[in-house]
Amino acid sequence: MRLKNSLFFLLMWCTIASYAQVDLINKVKDNTSENAKEGFQWETIIDVERTSVKNQGASGTCWSYSSNSFLESEMIRMGKTPVDLAEMFTVRNTYLEKADRYVRMHGNLNFGQGGALPDVVDMYKKYGAMPQEVYEGLSYGFDVNNHGELDAVLKGMLDAVVANHGNKLSTVWKTAYAKVLDVYLGEAPETFTYMGKNYTPKSFAKEIVGVNADDYIQITSWTHHEAYEPCTILVPDNWSNGISYNVAMEDMITIIDNALKNGYSVSWAADVSEKYFSWKNGIAYVPEKPFNSMTEEEKASMFKGPKPEMTITAEARQEAYDNFTTTDDHGMQIVGISKDQNGTEWYLVKNSWGTKNDYEGYLYVSKNYVRYKTLSFLLHKDAVPAGIRKKINV
What we know:
With about 400 residues, the protein is of the alpha+beta class. Helices cover about 35% and strands about 15% of the residues. The strands form two sheets. Strands 1, 4, 5, 6, 7, 8, 9, 10, 11, 12 and 13 form an eleven-stranded mixed sheet that branches.
């Protein structure tokens, strides 16, 4: 019972699409099998270097954790000493940008804790970056992130601005809004000292992090968009209408495999609402038999070793997106490939829910799950195979 309650609480706050938290909880609260780890034997094939597992706490900021972790891995790949980047600095800047757009859209925009993977790169390009030790974003009496109250206060404030009771907007609403962020997250310093040297966020990004924001692209795959053309993924948390490159379904696997084989990691956005995604057991796959058709014994043993999987087609993937069974839930980082005892390859995925699962914060995710339940992924454009890069013209 304690395990179920912990998972129940954790998943309440860890989704990208925070508006769907209750439905998500009801879908995933029982996704465990006893002693599941004993049923798998893993052989590491590829293991991309990365930093330690973090915990996003009670906040819907997985997009910031996954893509900042991705940037940290990019530093390692480039031969740099990685820095624990401040996820809440990214979150703060995203809140600023989102507020401006929310008001300009007269409140007709999704506003909340969620975001998209490229938001991190966009904020990095515009505002820079800083280390976690300089900006923890915990100025409101908690030891870990807890953004429920903050989110409600910010939303209420913006709705009051949009209501426009003075017939025109005041000249200070943005200042007042930023002050709320200062109170909850802390003031973002204009300059700070790191390793004995003074930096601004932008100089820190340039001199220490050193990645070029323009080198990163987002990939997706849908049949309702033109193949190999830019498109916009219509989900609420894509508040900035960010662009993705639309490729064939199997190209997603080809791109991810190519990236990992060449030392690149991948920031990954996916649906995690299915009964066959188990955070506790660290396993996600697509069973051959639908969950509702399983016997109780089959349900209880879902994660006890490799099982046959459903064949995934582009049509099945599209249908799941169209009928809302694939939803925009969570952001993670793909960091490797492992092989099970049957010789089947799975992706090793770093999560941001702490380390209290069977694999100390990691999951093994089948390639079929990635085919079926991926919303999008972010990576360096050089990690894309040359033939696909030519098709998407990047």
